[in-house]
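Worked example (supplementary).
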Amino acid sequence: MNILVISGSPRTHGRTRIAAAYISSVYQTDLIDLSEFILPLFNGEAEQAELMRVQELKQRVSKADAIVLYHSGMSGALKNALDFLSSEQFKYKPVALLAAAGGGKGGINALNNMRTVMRGLYANAIPRQLVLDPVTIDVENATVTEHMAASIKELMEELHMFANAGTPGV
Amino acid sequence: MNILVISGSPRTHGRTRIAAAYISSVYQTDLIDLSEFILPLFNGEAEQAELMRVQELKQRVSKADAIVLYHSGMSGALKNALDFLSSEQFKYKPVALLAAAGGGKGGINALNNMRTVMRGLYANAIPRQLVLDPVTIDVENATVTEHMAASIKELMEELHMFANAGTPGV
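After joint prediction of all chains, the assembly is encoded as:
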């Protein structure tokens, strides 16, 4: 099973990267960290499709059996990366959604927005989703709390369940 | 009354630019066209706040009495531009939302997502909103249809009404 985690935070320091790295390491997934994997601003011109980095993005999303999207409350970086992609890479592919949040309830809005965007790409955004409040991240030890680790485990199990069921029509 | 139109499409050719230019010209507004006004990908680092272009963006949004956000179905470029801004520029400011759409109903999702994002910036997204299907744009003459021109007029009147009422607490 080839799972790809896309960490949507453009910030090089922050809780999103800790949690994304945790998931990638514990569940041995591929990882695209958009604070390092810098894309140009999408402009719809054909030349951009030729860029090595854009081709790499498309290939890694295409070959994944399932995707984990981790985004901070409002990340243009993730949105921009998705602009380069289409239903060609996402159609019917199971996608798990996580949002970093400041502690309020804004994470839910971020998840709802991302779910709508995923629908537009014909992805299969799975029902289970997670908001990671600051208290769920152990910054000092660069990991997540035990409680959040259990929630992530459940999320990943559901993602596997959908991925194992196979992609409809394929 | 200083109204700022932000055209969110990153595409240099397209219907969004025609409609945004139409609004800016007919209603004599300021215009930031994100297909020309290129911003770096937001990364949250302090150095970016020093960039001339970022300072210009903040200033032009700050000094506007009201904002018109025109975005294509899914524009990382607009999302990225908003990443540079905060409630400091948007708090209680009336904002009109328009979405370019392919002819399906995806434009409504784009508007709903953008309304949620505006709430997060404490903007006052006004009730009236518009989806511009391809049939509403007269590409040959680089303008909008008569019917859409009337709808835009109503939108702009509502935006003026809110702007004239003044910003609460200021």
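Two points are worth noting when inspecting this output. Chain A has one domain: 3-165. Chain A touches chain B through 31 residues (CB under 8 Å).
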